[in-house]
Design goal:
heterodimer, A: 234 residues, alpha+beta, 4-stranded mixed beta sheet, globular, B: 409 residues, mainly alpha, Formate dehydrogenase/DMSO reductase fold, 15 helices
């Protein structure tokens, strides 16, 4: 919470599925920003690849009338997260800005949270991560390296949120909408992804969340996700 | 020697675990989305086996069924060892096992507390309680026998027996206290056993994963536990009977009674399985039907139908037809049930996790040599522990065969 703003922030995201081209620039950007481990072909075939954001592809219709729909799926930072109550050591909890926080140092690796996430957005470090030379030189110093035995997932680039809040406080100004861009929203060439404060009624993400095209993934489960998918109704 | 072979297999499993701790839990076959695999199957299986003692010893003790007498200690020993083995698996499956103690509420400078809302913490509590209780339940009725052994023992056994005898003299007051303590413990252990397997079931039922979120899980698991425990007991008793020449103590009618109980549990298991599957199938909820289809007719159908065959068809035929029911067929049926109940745990855990709600997250699981080694090692360890126990202590309770003043005949 910053001293300037009276209400706490509530971080959310809007993803326009009618703009998304499925290019996966968001996936690559997330890897670079968050020091995601790189899998070799064998681990990837074993289902061990880590992608905090992934692009799901859905095919509709028969050739030649096939339509492909792309949906980037990342941690939905659910307000009623099913992953939170089941962790026996409180390694995942909900902070006061609405983020579902994963505390790497506390995680003992029971992996119950991974089982209970209906979006399958949680990933586990099966081994200590290894980067072939010289990839380890491009690590982001703001993001910790997770050791083997620890769960991880999208954090809404919490390091960027913290940096922006610190910068704003240092400069003696309030945070503006657009000050914070997560790696994925920043890299999207179709400008399909927007990140911001849902508690700010004027922010772009709040306006998009109220749009007639706004939907949520697995909404009927009552997880109260904070990612809004915009798509034309059929 | 048999013990050496069992010890070697158990040591191999321990080595595999050590390798896993050193290299990383990735040497196991588990992967996203099947975050829980053989270790959890083994965990539920062994905790289930531990219900042998509770059923035979506690329930039959409380109902004053005297035919239980030669069988109780064997059953209680199974419970204690199965719990010790089962209780290892929450450690084996941890990603950072060296921090396991964070699951216990101990005072620390960071003022951190475990999350008791998590069913895994309920596991920790329930299983610790059950292990403590069942060790007491095993130990108390051993006291008179151990005191008797101490009279003729020498060397280190003398010291062991004397310490364990706690100065038992066989006075009226002591017998009275023992009988009352046993009655009390029987009641307590029964309540604890029901709660333990309900809690283990709730590891799954509290989750919203398709086909896990079911209210039937708690009673289903308790029934399944008693079922598999009984099967384990029958197998163990037959082995003891032959190898230790206890034919005059473990009589055919004991096995007939146990077999009838096994048949009853088989029918109960079938009823629960049918009720669960009928409900899911009729409800036709798409995410659940994916898992249902995989189990009944898809990828997991061989395991599913083998399970139904050995859990129901074989016991029904071999034990339901009086002419076919004898010690040998009871043992065959029991071995089948052990296989079937292990498969049942596997079929509860793996298909659901393989097919989460979003199909983009679907995946396959195949266990690695590490998981298989550890699984096999637990069976060897169980047999080894049992063997050592039966060499040190009388597996058939001696004092329950000799009349003493305080006992109600």
């Amino acid at each position: 919470m910053s001293e300037q703003n009276k209400t706490p922030h509530r971080w959310g995201m809007a993803i326009d599925l009618d703009r998304c081209t499925g290019c996966q620039a968001c996936v690559a950007a997330c890897h670079a920003e968050n020091n995601l481990s790189v899998s070799d072909a064998e681990s990837a075939a074993k289902g061990r690849a880590v992608h905090w954001i992934r692009v799901d592809r859905y095919y509709e219709g028969e050739f030649p009338d096939v339509r492909v729909k792309y949906r980037p799926v990342l941690c939905q930072q659910c307000d009623e997260a099913p992953c939170e109550p089941v962790c026996p050591v409180y390694a995942t909890y909900h902070n006061d800005e609405g983020l579902n926080v994963q505390v790497y140092n506390r995680c003992v690796g029971t992996r119950y949270c991974g089982n209970n996430c209906p979006y399958s957005v949680r990933f586990f470090n099966w081994f200590d991560p290894v980067w072939t030379e010289p990839l380890q030189l491009q690590h982001n110093p703001d993001v910790s390296i997770r050791e083997g035995g620890v769960m991880e997932k999208c954090t809404f680039c919490v390091q960027r949120i913290t940096r922006a809040k610190d910068d704003a406080r240092a400069e003696g100004r309030a945070l503006k909408d657009g000050d914070i861009q997560t790696a994925c929203t920043q890299s999207c060439p179709a400008e399909a992804m927007v990140f911001g404060d849902l508690n700010d009624p004027e922010s772009w993400v709040s306006l998009l969340a109220k749009s007639a095209r706004a939907t949520q993934l697995l909404e009927d489960l009552g997880t109260k996700p904070k990612v809004f998918y915009l798509e034309r109704a059929k | 020697m048999v013990l050496a072979l069992l010890g070697a297999i158990a040591a191999w499993g321990l080595a595999a675990w050590g390798y896993q701790i050193h290299t990383g839990i990735g040497v196991a076959g588990i992967r996203r989305p099947v975050f829980w695999g053989l270790y959890l199957v083994d965990f539920v299986f062994w905790i289930g086996i531990s219900h042998a003692g509770t059923l035979i010893s506690a329930i039959l003790r409380l109902t004053d069924a005297n035919w239980r007498k030669p069988v109780t200690r064997a059953a209680e020993a199974i419970t204690a060892f199965a719990l010790m083995i089962g209780g290892m698996f929450p450690l084996v499956h941890l990603g950072r096992v060296w921090l396991f103690y964070w699951l216990f509420p101990y005072p620390n400078s960071r003022l951190l507390w475990p999350n008791f809302r998590s069913p895994l913490m309920w596991d920790v509590t329930a299983i610790s309680t059950y292990l403590t209780g069942s060790l007491i339940f095993l130990y108390l009725p051993m006291i008179p026998d151990v005191a008797q052994l101490a009279e003729k023992a020498t060397g280190w056994r003398l010291l062991l027996y004397k310490v364990m005898a706690l100065g038992w003299t066989g006075s009226d007051r002591e017998w009275h206290a023992l009988e009352r303590a046993m009655k009390l413990m029987a009641g307590i252990i029964l309540a604890v056993a029901v709660s333990v397997h309900s809690v283990v079931a709730w590891d799954f039922a509290m989750s919203i994963a398709p086909m896990w979120h079911s209210t039937i899980f708690a009673p289903y698991f308790v029934v399944g536990a008693i079922f598999s425990g009984l099967a384990g007991l029958i197998v163990a008793l037959n082995i003891i009977r032959r190898t230790m020449h206890l034919e005059s103590y473990l009589l055919p009618h004991h096995f007939h009674n146990l077999a009838k109980l096994l048949l009853l549990m088989s029918l109960l298991w079938l009823y629960f399985t049918f009720a669960e599957h009928l409900t899911i199938w009729y409800g036709n909820e798409p995410k659940e039907m994916n898992v249902f289809g995989a189990r009944v007719s898809g990828k997991f159908s061989p395991e599913f139908w083998i399970m139904v065959f050995v859990n129901f068809v074989v016991p029904f035929v071999l034990l339901g037809i009086r002419r076919l029911r004898n010690i040998t067929t009871a043992t065959i049926a029991s071995v089948g049930v052990l296989i079937g109940m292990w498969l049942e745990r596997y079929l509860i855990i793996v298909p659901t996790l393989s097919m989460p709600r979003l199909s983009a997250g679907w995946g396959r699981y195949s266990p690695s040599w590490v998981e298989i080694s550890i699984t096999v090692a637990t069976f060897a360890a169980m047999a080894a522990l049992y063997l050592v126990f039966s060499k040190l202590f009388p597996i058939v309770s001696v004092w329950e065969f000799e009349p003493h003043e305080q006992e109600d005949a």
